[in-house]
Amino acid sequence: MTARLTRRPGGAARLRALLDSGQMILAPGAFDPLAARCVEEAGFPAVYMTGFGTSAALLGRPDVGLLTMTEMVDNAARIAACVDVPVIADADTGYGNPMNVIRTVNAYEAAGVGGIHIEDQVAPKRCGHMDGKQVIPASEMAAKIRAAVDARTDPDFVIIARTDARAVEGLASALDRAGRYRDAGADVLFIEAVRSEAEAAEAVAAFPDVPLLFNWAEGGKTPPIALDRLRAIGYRMVIFPISTLLAATGAMRAILAEIAGAGTPQAALPGLPSFDEFVDFIGLPEVRATEQRYTADEPAAGAEPGG
Q1: Is position 154 annotated as part of the catalytic site?
Q2: 16, 38, 40, 63: the active-site residue
Q3: I want to staple 95 with a disulfide (CB 3.0 to 4.6 A). Which of 69, 155, 156, 298 is the partner?
Q4: 75 catalytically annotated
């Protein structure tokens, strides 16, 4: 992977092409641009900008609706700017009514992401795998989805409708809501926090005409399901929103414990990237090449300026 200083255009078109290809799209979560680079380096076809991870990284707080739309979009823009693969971004509840959703879609499109998901929770929302969620009426959410579809300037920009009703009203209600959101124009359905493999399969079977997204969240309400089973069931997108966040937290705790105990990180260095390897990974060679391209030629000795 070569680090880039400029954003590659067409994130929406590239995400739409992945959807149209029929392949399962695996999108690990990134909470910042560095994590996004790691996802891309590992060979994944897309990056998922996690709202849970963004809240943890920017605020050090849980995902309970504390971040504003502009804070989320700013993080999405930085992530999209540093990778060549398309970015799928969390857009929470759309940050208000249909008018707010229009502004939200415009902002995320301008940020360069390939698509967003909007959920039907009451604001302030909370992580889909936390207790105590509430949902708005299905008719209000359907109006938000219609507004999102109408607001996009690029028809390839992917609108994902998420329902959190499984935990509040049961699976049957969640499927009914998802059908209404599909009819409102959603490109992908996201039925959050199903409780079993059987429920996951039932959700896909209910919507043979639209792709479904599966949320693989460690320790969440949904039990672990093997990737080959998800593929066999028929899921088209799988996100892993907190894997990188949990791994990064574990690694930071370990190195800090080493420093606290030993006084230096010396013993842990063999397991870490070297300084040179790391700066190459984050794009120093390209920076130097770009600097060379724009370095003014030195005037010949004795030459008069402008001569």
Answers
A1: no
A2: 63
A3: 69
A4: no
Catalytic residue among 16, 38, 192, 235: 192
Catalytic site includes residue 276 = no
Q: Known catalytic residue: 164?
A: no
- Burial tier of 61 (Cβ tally within 10 Å: 0-12, 13-18, 19+): exposed
How much is the pLDDT for 211?
98
Residue 30: is it exposed, middle or buried by C-beta count within 10 angstroms (0-12/13-18/19+)?
A: buried
Whether 100 sits among the annotated catalytic residues: the reply is no
- 97 counts as catalytic: no
Concerning whether 38 is annotated as a catalytic residue, the answer is: no
Residues making up the chain, counted from first to last: 307
Condensed to tens digits (0 to 9), the pLDDT of residues 10-38 reads 799 999 999 999 999 999 999 999 999 99
pLDDT digits (tens, 9 = 90+) for 231-257: 999 999 999 999 999 999 999 999 999
Q: Is residue 90 flagged as an active site residue?
A: yes
* Catalytic residue status for 129: no
Name the token pair of 266: 């010396």
pTM: 0.92
- Cα separation of 118 and 112, whole Å? 17
Q: Domains of the chain (ranges plus CATH)? A: 11-242 (3.20.20.60), 250-293 (no CATH)
**Marked catalytic residue, from 32, 40, 92, 120:** 92
What is the pairing mode between strands 47-49 and 188-191?
unpaired
Q: Name the active-site residue from 37, 40, 126, 127.
A: 127
Q: What is the DSSP string of 136-147?
A: --HHHHHHHHHH
